[in-house]
Amino acid sequence: MMFMDMVKQNTIILQTISNNIKTKNKMEAQEMILIVIAMVIYFLPSIIAMVRKNTQTLAIFILNLILGWTGLGWVGALVWAFIKENKS
């Protein structure tokens, strides 16, 4: 009887550890997805400039990278990415 109780107890412990690992991996995956979404939103002005083939894409990216965190820099980069260029 003693041996069987120890096996059951160890099985319960291993199941608990396994469940904790699965939960942790799920949380890590969710965190990674949120980080990727945040990065896409943060660099949205740069992405838009690239897609629109703006000639100032590098400057927009630099503004976005350096001042995007201020909010004002992000909005400025976004507006700049949407400004239509004059082809003279």
Walk me through what this model shows.
81% of the residues lie in helices and 0% in strands. The chain has 88 residues and is an all-alpha fold. Helix 2 packs antiparallel against helix 3, helix 2 runs parallel beside helix 4 (72-82) and helix 3 packs antiparallel against helix 4 (72-82).
Please report the total strand number as a whole number.
0
Percent of residues in helical segments?
over 70%
Tell me the fraction of residues in β-strands, as a range.
under 5%
How much is the average pLDDT? 84
The number of domains is: 2
Rg, alpha carbons: 25 Å
**Number of DSSP helical runs:** 4
Structural class by secondary-structure content? mainly alpha
Low-confidence stretches: none
- Overall 3D form: rod-shaped
- Can you summarize the main beta sheet? none
- End-to-end separation: 91 Å
Helices and strands, in order, run as HHHH
Give a concise summary:
This protein has 4 helices and no strands. With 88 residues, it is mostly helical.
Q: What labels describe this entry?
A:
rod-shaped, 2 domains, mainly alpha, 88 residues, 4 helices
Topology diagram in text:
Elements: H1 2-42, H2 44-51, H3 57-67, H4 72-82
